[in-house]
């Protein structure tokens, strides 16, 4: 968004310090001018804010059109502009992981607070999230700290532009899993990022609810759609949000049913079973 120039420069410096081959970088200004960046970093300034998935899709297309030195790009990293790679071996670990496992499509990094080292429970993309230091197969990934094999994007498409904010990673993850790819959470690949609450965004409650409905309508077998959304309705009520938050949530929930969600391509039942075996059946 162009409002964190110091944090962006620190992130770019941490990328430049990665071991092994140089990591090519594109910075997308999502409806905002791009601050000064180091030489060799490509920039794209969009005239309007396309949202998180829309902005990242622009970055994806930039690499598809023109990879490093005209070569094919095999893996893309997506990093929040106020994050910082904690170690210099992250890129090499990514290369090794993808080379060792041809079924691996996406890697989700661990996010840790730079001051405390703590990882928020919501940043561990599995139900059993009490131990963030345990790496495992998972069913979704973190949007601001991940690596995706470009072959996955070529096969199943990019992030859903219309989501704008919230659940776009799970939409891509479900499509990737349905195509036979796997997703790993790696505790040893760390992005330092200040602890925050997602509800700081004014649109949080509405978009979380709207996109949850879109996610189900787009990806789940018809029989699971009411089960999945019913479970999340009960969970939302159990969390006892404030009256304004609950009003916004129900407004988004209604919007999810009454507005177009994009093309529907329900996952195979064997994918439902795969998600269940991985510890997160697609009803929660």
Comma- or semicolon-separated keywords:
284 residues; alpha/beta; Spore Coat Polysaccharide Biosynthesis Protein SpsA, Chain A; 2 domains; 6-stranded mixed sheet; two-stranded parallel sheet; 8 strands; 15% strand; globular
Explain what you see:
With 284 residues, the protein is of the alpha/beta class. The protein has two domains: 188 residues, Spore Coat Polysaccharide Biosynthesis Protein SpsA, Chain A, CATH 3.90.550; 77 residues, no CATH class. It contains nine helices and eight strands. Strands 3, 4, 5, 6, 7 and 8 form a six-stranded mixed sheet that branches. The radius of gyration is 19 Å and the shape is globular. The model has no long low-confidence stretch (mean pLDDT 94). InterPro entries: Glyco_trans_2-like, Nucleotide-diphossugar_trans. One of its GO terms (molecular function) is glycosyltransferase activity. Keywords: Glycosyltransferase, Transferase. It comes from Streptomyces silvensis. Pfam families: Glycos_transf_2.
Can you describe this structure in just a few lines?
The chain is of the alpha/beta class and 284 residues long. It has helices at residues 5-16, 51-65, 90-100, 150-156, 168-178, 204-219, 225-238, 243-258, 269-277; strands at 26-29, 42-45, 75-79, 84-85, 104-112, 136-138, 145-149, 182-192. Pfam families: Glycos_transf_2 (PF00535).
């Amino acid at each position: 968004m162009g409002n964190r120039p110091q944090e962006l420069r620190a992130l770019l410096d941490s990328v430049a310090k990665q071991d092994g081959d140089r990591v090519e970088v594109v910075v997308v200004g999502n409806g905002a001018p791009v601050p000064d960046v180091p030489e060799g970093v490509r920039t794209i300034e969009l005239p309007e804010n396309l949202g998180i998935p829309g902005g990242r899709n622009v970055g994806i297309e930039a690499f598809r059109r023109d990879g490093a030195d005209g070569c094919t790009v095999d893996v893309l990293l997506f990093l929040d502009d106020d994050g910082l790679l904690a170690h210099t071996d992250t890129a090499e670990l990514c290369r090794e992981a993808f080379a060792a496992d041809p079924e691996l499509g996406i890697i989700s990094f661990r996010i840790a607070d730079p001051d405390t080292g703590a990882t928020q429970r919501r940043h561990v993309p599995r139900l059993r999230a009490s131990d963030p230091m345990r790496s495992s197969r998972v069913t979704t990934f973190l949007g601001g700290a991940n690596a995706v094999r470009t072959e996955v994007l070529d096969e199943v498409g990019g992030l859903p532009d219309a989501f704008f904010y919230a659940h776009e990673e799970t939409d891509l993850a479900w499509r990737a899993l349905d195509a036979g790819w796997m997703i790993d959470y790696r505790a040893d690949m760390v992005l330092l990022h200040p602890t925050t609450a997602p509800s700081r965004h004014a649109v949080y409650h509405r978009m979380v609810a709207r996109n949850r409905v879109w996610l189900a309508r787009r990806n789940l077998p018809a029989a699971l759609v009411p089960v999945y959304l019913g479970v999340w309705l009960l969970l939302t009520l159990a969390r006892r949000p404030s009256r304004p938050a609950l009003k916004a949530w129900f407004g988004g929930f209604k919007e999810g049913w009454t507005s177009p969600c994009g093309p529907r391509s329900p996952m195979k039942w064997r994918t439902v079973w795969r998600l269940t075996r991985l510890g997160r059946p697609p009803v929660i």
